[in-house]
Amino acid sequence: MKAMNRRKFMKGSLLGGAAASVVAKSKSAEASASFGGYPEAMGVLVDLTRCVGCRSCEAACNKEQGLPAPAQAFDDMSVLDHERRTSEGAYTVVNRYEIPGQDHPLFRKIQCNHCNEPACLTSCFVNAYTKTPEGAVIYDPTVCVGCRTCMVACPFYIPAYSYSSVLNPVIKKCIFCYDTRLKFGRPPACVEACPREVLTFGKRQDLIKIGHKRIQNYPDVYEDHIYGENEVGGTSWMYLSNAPFDQVGFDTDLGNQPILSYVKEFLTVVPMVLTIWPALFAGFHLLATRKDAKNKEEKTEI
Amino acid sequence: MELIQKYLLSSLMAMLLCFSSYGTNALAGEGPDEVEIDSLAQLYDPVYFDHAMHEEVTESKCSVCHHHTLGTEIENENCMRCHAESGATDEITCQGCHSSKRFDADYLHKIDADNTLYHRDKVGLKAAYHIRCMNCHEEMGVANGCQDCHTRTDAGDKFFHAGSYTPPKSDKPVGGGH
């Protein structure tokens, strides 16, 4: 009888274990499934083969966003001698890259790439960021407390900080001209200003098709890759290049997982640690010191 | 009496229109001598494109710029797959095919709705000019800077913070902080 019980028990626990592992598997599959972005999200396909570095996009951005006057004129090409980053006064900048073996330099415009699953949004503890169905990653500066966590989280080093503001420094970055244009179905100011359609505006899904078609039509020209199609879970702004992407300043080691997925499992533990640990360790403490307290009591009694 | 005059006038117009539509099968030398391009008129003065001179430069090979639209010989093999026998089209001007409202919602919807369309990635008018003109100018080694073709207006100077709107020189390092 005893043996039977034991066998039954083993059988049951094995079955239970198998069932548990199946449940766990499906759960982890669910967790790793990518959101993939809003289906109607707009985007911009940047074709580096067309850019001549005229900086019209920078000038247009400056005007549209009401940014402060630049230190140098937008037709002053000497700024291209140094690699620049986005700043509180410039939400987009063009950099020049000399490519070994090519006669011509390449120019790359950078701005917020408007990720499908933005790391800045995930990292923001006051929920200042929003990914809109139109594709823009926008933020509410009135909520921003200026902690700069998003600057650390962004894989593209895009969000800038208004260091010049003494009383209320906040994050500053490209918002895809959401308030003034994208919301109304219009392309951002830089796209409209670009003379050579380096920037193609359209539905993100269509742009991916267009990008692959260009690569297919000119396989000798383009690298067989659209940067941003899959990087960090996909971005609304994507790039085509005729030089290896790492030679044009792109980080090619970011992987295709959204930044969120690297921290999701850790972050789910945080609330548990915060709620259970204090009670648990307070309990341990009380248990450990119970004897002392008892002794003390006894002593006082004597 | 006035009515008869009106009828005469309109029939004359109709006849003219008929002729003009036949006249699109243009030959080299039949094009305009000069084309005024003023789509960027806000920031730049209009550009007067010397069409006659460019006919000479291209040795009257219209397809260098006009693709297949004039029914003249084309060289691009990819285009030939469909357009080898196309003949002249109704539209021969740049803006006839290249939209000046490339990214308007209406235009994007139109492309989206037509799944039989092959030329889905057709650049807009401004890009058609700039890509065609500048790539050729570079190949030929002729002037190719923005202001070699465009004279900037005052509004343009303001837009670029250039000319009389150039910021005063500062000691701040170029590039700035983050």
Short structural summary:
The complex is a heterodimer of chains A (302) and B (178). Chain A has 302 residues and is an alpha+beta fold.
Describe this structure in words.
The complex is a heterodimer of chains A (302) and B (178). Chain A starts with a helix and ends with a helix. Chain A is α+β, with helices and mostly antiparallel strands. The model of chain A is unreliable at 13-32 (pLDDT under 50). Chain A contains seven helices and nine strands; from the N terminus they run αβαββαββαββαβαβα. Chain A has one domain: Alpha-Beta Plaits, CATH 3.30.70.20. With 178 residues, chain B is mainly alpha-helical. Chain B has one domain (30-165): Alpha-Beta Complex (Cytochrome C3), CATH 3.90.10.10. Chain B has a two-stranded antiparallel ribbon. At the A-B interface, helix 2, strand 6, strand 8 and helix 6 of A face helix 6 and helix 7 of B.
Question: In terms of quaternary structure, what is this?
Answer: heterodimer
Order of helices and strands of chain A: HEHEEHEEHEEHEHEH
Which chains have the largest interface? Answer: A-B, 50 and 32 residues
The number of distinct β-strands of chain A equals 9
Outline type of chain B: globular
Distance between the termini of chain A: 58 Å
Helix-strand layout with pairing:
The complex is a heterodimer of chains A (302) and B (178).
Chain A: H1 2-32, E1 42-47, H2 56-64, E2 93-97, E3 106-110, H3 119-123, E4 129-131, E5 137-139, H4 149-153, E6 160-161, E7 171-172, H5 189-193, E8 199-203, H6 204-217, E9 237-240, H7 259-301
Parallel strand pairs in A: 1-9
Antiparallel strand pairs in A: 1-8, 2-3, 4-5, 6-7
Chain B: H1 2-22, E1 34-37, E2 47-50, H2 51-57, H3 63-66, H4 77-83, H5 94-97, H6 105-113, H7 125-140, H8 146-149, H9 154-160
Antiparallel strand pairs in B: 1-2
